[in-house]
Automatic annotation (TrEMBL):
Residues 1-11 have a biased composition (Basic residues). GO terms for biological process: erythrocyte maturation; protein import into nucleus; ribosomal large subunit biogenesis. Belongs to the nuclear import and ribosome assembly adapter family. Residues 1-39 are annotated as: Disordered. SUPFAM superfamilies: ARM repeat. This is HEAT repeat-containing protein 3. It comes from Aotus nancymaae. Component of a hexameric 5S RNP precursor complex, composed of 5S RNA, RRS1, RPF2/BXDC1, RPL5, RPL11 and HEATR3; this complex acts as a precursor for ribosome assembly. Residues 417-673 form the SYO1-like TPR repeats domain. Plays a role in ribosome biogenesis and in nuclear import of the 60S ribosomal protein L5/large ribosomal subunit protein uL18 (RPL5). Required for proper erythrocyte maturation.
């Protein structure tokens, strides 16, 4: 039903356990079993205890409890959000930090309904107040003697980091939260935190995630970006890469700047495109598999050295605890119990693991940004901005943001400059490389270590993102920018090998959707340019038979579209009668039996394409009795649209289905003339 459009990627919510989506509706409604109220009730009661240490312990306990699915309804019933909210402004900074951590985990685990419910319960009021107090605390050098003794600037930054993560999670899920973000001037606050990136990259990364969320489709906020605000982003982009985490930070800021494209002066657009794609190119150029291997080896060596040093120290000093901060990696014993509660809010990570996760996340983010860049509405030719290309992709920062006070032009378009920049930085080639399966040695290393095992999923996600990115690039760029006809044929062979090297490909839903989307776009481009295709009829039918039983509607739509594209090419060739008959029978079965009207409509479109022209197609249509089958299905299709359409499908989908319905009537008339001619 027309060319596929890749969906834009949204930033994912933070998840402290990797996969903790809970029964959010039950939480928001306060329904669920009573069995889990025991620990929740006890911890919530302790939030009011006079002792700061007890309150802190209770917050830390809740931070762990909210990660357990059965506990969430009980917490909702007992109004945990309203009871935790005031502790964001508790006199004790450690209580503030653990309370923010508990709310962070709740907002991450609960999903959209829980986050929206948190806004309803006015969590934004104490949260914004906390963010403002942290901002003032970072500026102020006036601290009471007790504060100087017990607290330091790092504590304030830790609290700010937790608070920003709560803000990010809630804004990701609630438009009301974004509106409050705009009205309360939160932009200035979080940008102040971002400016601390040279000394606190963790806080800066949290802010960058939040900015990517709140700047997307938010014209009201864009008006608040002054030249000073943009220079903060500039300073991050121009900073040297000192670690994988700083690379992730630059990638996230690049995504934020892309969201700000509507306020960038026209004459600076070309330089900005080049600068952003330069960063994304550098991220994608790194070999994630080799990095995993190297970092794992470094970790093993560090732990071995630490164990040897600890043994020597124990022999020298007995069981004394080591209190020097520099010896933290040697001994896991801590004198200060309070810190252990804070660390429980997030999964434990070591330096090498954090660095590796940062790289994998940066690569996934880079691919998503490229997809989003390719998903802009294509303007007409007379709307293209005349942008001047620049080889000095870093130079744009010198002048571009100084012009924000002047006249701003129309929104940035995916123009010839973007196409050229994508090609100049070898983005298609680097994306192509990421479509390969993850390094087997890296996967094996991760599979043997529980803390590294989740990285396997992240590596697989990068492959899927690369395939979807490839789909966008193939749909957007000219054949020449993709390397020519030979490169497309090589790419088709590569995708076929990826697909058929996995006997259980039909069971891997994410992979199947991604690779079928890439194949669909590639085969469509090759067919439009009369480039010979590489998939054999047997491979084609294997893909379609495996994909059509997927529970994912997108996969089913892709496979019938691929069948239509390939069939329309075969219809113009000789000796393809039997293959066309197989294709026709398959598409007819999908048309009449698939429960989704979208898939049925796509299958009808594919039938129209395959049997629209060609002698072999005409003979095949008569032999499979296509006309009688479509005549029988026509009233059924009309009835299904009338009965099932409203409420189940979007307005756009219904418009497309209505168009398919009209085309079906015309196609039946055409088939009547074909059958009459061939049977007379």
């Amino acid at each position: 039903m027309g060319k596929s459009r890749t969906k834009r990627f949204k930033r994912p919510q933070f998840s402290p356990t990797g996969d903790c989506q809970a029964d959010a509706a039950a939480v928001a409604n306060g329904t669920g079993g009573e069995d889990d109220d025991g620990p929740a009730a006890e911890l919530l009661e302790k939030l009011q205890h006079p002792s700061a240490e007890v309150r802190e312990c209770a917050c830390a306990g809740l931070a762990r409890l909210v990660q357990q699915r059965p506990a969430l309804p009980g917490l909702a019933r007992r109004d945990a959000v309203r009871r935790l909210g005031p502790l964001l402004l508790d006199p004790s900074l450690t209580v503030r930090e653990t309370a923010a951590g508990a709310l962070r985990n709740l907002s991450a685990c609960g999903g959209f309904e829980v986050c929206d419910d948190m806004v309803t319960k006015d969590i934004m009021t104490p949260l914004v107040a906390l963010l403002k107090e942290c901002s003032a605390g970072l500026d102020s050098n006036e601290m009471s003697p007790q504060e100087k003794k017990d607290q330091n600037r790092n504590s304030i930054e830790n609290i700010a980091n937790e608070a920003v993560n709560v803000l990010w999670n809630i804004c990701e899920c609630s438009s009301r939260a974004v509106s409050i973000f705009n009205k309360e001037g939160c932009l200035e606050i979080v940008l102040k935190y971002l400016s601390r990136f040279p000394t606190n990259v963790d806080l800066a990364i949290s802010v960058a995630y939040c900015l990517q969320t709140v700047t997307e489709d938010n014209p009201e906020l864009l008006k608040s970006f002054s030249a000073t605000a943009l220079h903060v982003l500039e300073s991050v982009l121009l900073s040297p890469v000192s670690s994988m985490e700083s690379l992730l930070l630059k990638t996230l800021v690049a995504g934020t700047i892309w969201n700000l494209k509507d306020i960038i002066p026209c004459k600076s657009q070309a330089e900005i495109i080049n600068a952003l794609l330069k960063i994304l190119s550098e991220v994608l150029e790194m070999d994630a598999g080799e990095t995993v291997i190297q970092m794992k080896e470094t970790e093993m060596q560090r732990l071995k050295t630490a164990a040897e040093a600890e043994e020597i120290l124990e022999n020298t000093n007995g069981d004394d605890l080591i209190e020097d901060d520099e010896m933290e990696g040697i001994s896991r014993k801590r004198k200060v119990r309070r810190k252990t509660f804070v660390s429980d809010l997030l999964p434990a990570t070591d330096k090498e693991l954090r660095e590796t996760i940062a790289l994998l996340t940066a690569q996934q983010t880079a691919l998503e940004i490229i997809v989003n860049m390719c998903c802009n509405e294509d303007p007409s030719d007379d709307e293209w901005e005349e942008l001047s290309s620049s080889d000095e992709s870093d130079a744009f920062m010198e002048n571009s943001f100084n012009e924000c006070g002047g006249q701003l032009f129309s929104p940035l378009c995916l123009s010839h400059e973007v196409h050229t920049a994508l090609t100049n930085y070898l983005i298609p080639k680097k994306v192509f490389e990421k479509t390969a399966f993850p390094n087997s040695i890296a996967v094996d290393l991760c599979s043997r270590n529980p803390t590294w095992k989740p990285l396997i999923r992240k590596m697989n996600t990068i492959q899927c993102r690369a395939l979807l990115c490839l789909q966008s690039l193939v749909s957007l760029l000219d054949v020449e920018h993709l390397g020519g006809a030979a490169a497309l044929q090589t790419l088709a062979q590569h995708l076929s090998q990826l697909l058929f090297s996995q006997p259980d490909f039909a069971k891997r839903a994410d992979f199947l959707e991604a690779i079928s989307s890439a194949l669909r776009a590639l085969l469509q481009t090759m067919a439009s340019k009369n480039i010979s295709q590489c998939m054999t009829p047997d491979q084609l039918m294997t893909l379609c038979k495996g994909g059509i039983h997927s529970s994912n509607v997108g996969v089913r739509v892709n496979v019938v579209s691929i069948l239509g594209i390939t069939g329309s090419v075969l219809a113009k060739e000789d000796g393809t009668l039997e293959t066309l008959k197989n294709i026709g029978c398959f598409l007819l079965e999908v048309t009449t039996k698939d429960p989704s009207l979208v898939v049925a409509g796509e299958a009808l479109d594919a039938l129209f394409d395959v049997f629209a022209d060609g002698k072999e197609a005409e003979r095949a249509s008569v032999q499979i009795k296509l006309l009688s089958a479509l005549k029988e299905f026509q009233p059924v299709f009309k009835m299904k649209i009338r009965k099932e359409g409203k409420g189940n499908y979007s307005t756009d989908q219904l418009c497309v289905l209505d168009n398919v319905k009209m085309n079906l009537r015309r196609f039946i008339a055409y088939q009547e003339t074909v059958e009459k001619r061939l049977t007379s």
